[in-house]
TrEMBL record:
Organism: Methyloraptor flagellatus
Keywords: DNA-binding
Domain HTH merR-type: 3-71
Gene Ontology molecular functions: DNA binding; DNA-binding transcription factor activity
Name of this protein: Helix-turn-helix domain-containing protein
InterPro entries: DNA-bd_dom_put_sf, MerR-type_HTH_dom, MerR_fam
Amino acid sequence: MKLLDIGEVAAATGIPPSTLRYYEEIGLVTSLARHGLRRQYAPDVVLQLRLIALGKSAGFALEEIAGMFGRDGLPNLPRDVLHERADALDQQIRELVALRDTLRHVADCPAPSHMECATFRRLVEVVGRRGARARRHREGRRPTVRTGSN
């Protein structure tokens, strides 16, 4: 088996050598040898690095990605976690589409001032409520209901 040096791996994946060294430091990848001062990797590290890049693109933290590889470096992808991430991405897509539509409306609105546009004001209100709800969810709190005076 012909080993790839760190420069070849970087060229094949687009990942800088400094990042490859960091990934090795935290245990995501392993070099097999050194040729002089240059680290040498098995050819299958390219696929492993592409899977790591895919995981990062999907929003997984490096620690989460590390847990998706066995000791042999082969992926062991927990399907339930992947479904949860896909659901989170669906929600993010819905929010981004709504944001895009809001921006387009604001850009095209014929009202002299955006604050005079009823649609714009409604959109701002909806975004504000979503933001408050998301903060409460992140903080693990439910909205408080006040009763009586004071």
